[in-house]
Amino acid sequence: MARLYWRYGGLLAGLQLALSGCSSETSAPPVEPKPSAEAPAAQVPPRSDEKLVLAFGDSLYAGYGLGPGESFPAMLDKELEARGLAVDMVNAGVSGDTTAAGLARLDFTLDGLKRTPDLAIVGLGGNDVLRGIDPKETRANLEAIVRTLDRRGIPVVLTGMIAPRNLGADYAGRFDAIYPDLAKSYGAALDPFFLDGVITDPGLLLGDGIHPNAAGVRIMAKRLAPVVAKELTPAS
After folding, report:
1. What is the pTM of this model?
2. pLDDT of residue 188 exceeding 60
3. Catalytic amino acids?
4. Can you list the positions of beta strands (E) in the chain?
5. What's the Cα-to-Cα distance from 82 to each of 32, 58, 86, 140, rounded to whole Å?
6. What is the residue extent of each domain of the chain?
7. pLDDT > 70: percent of the chain
8. For a Cys-Cys bond, which of 34, 123, 193, 215 suits 159, CB 3.0-4.6 Å?
């Protein structure tokens, strides 16, 4: 993992360049509904056991630079359905979002859903690092997000991030601890580093060297599918 950390640290300049593109990108809508069938008139009614899943994050969820059906929530949806789970996946990823921006739109997003989600997958914090936001503020915002979901009775899967090492040991240590600490405190499932196994392979990244391409997203979705499936499957 140490080698991965140093490689990630070396990408900071590219990350900062990508940030401006993320925050100004408007092609991806805030909510990406599950694609409808080609023949709407013959839509299949939802299964009685269908699970509503909210994917709440930034450009890594929104599908920055990807085509239809290639975003992380869309590919995760396919992985879950391949496991026999009926899922209605709502993509509420917004490119450029910080944890503060995510917190500001959380209640509005939840209130706009057809019902309370069975699960929320939360992936925010990367843009906080790029802006040099104090990890104390990032932690407070993320905890408020998780606490809001917990108060509404919505289980959470956290997809974590790590800080580039050239920001200093103190910053990295305080930032990296946020996700495992919150997962432990609120009983949330945790993927420690969302880009693990992807950020170190140029063949899995878009031209900006930061965002995963479709092949990279597929790897991430396959890794997360067992974690999410476990949260959606009632304990026997």
Report:
1. 0.82
2. yes
3. 59, 208, 211
4. 51-57, 87-93, 119-123, 156-159, 189-191
5. 20, 25, 9, 37
6. 2-29+51-232
7. 79
8. 123
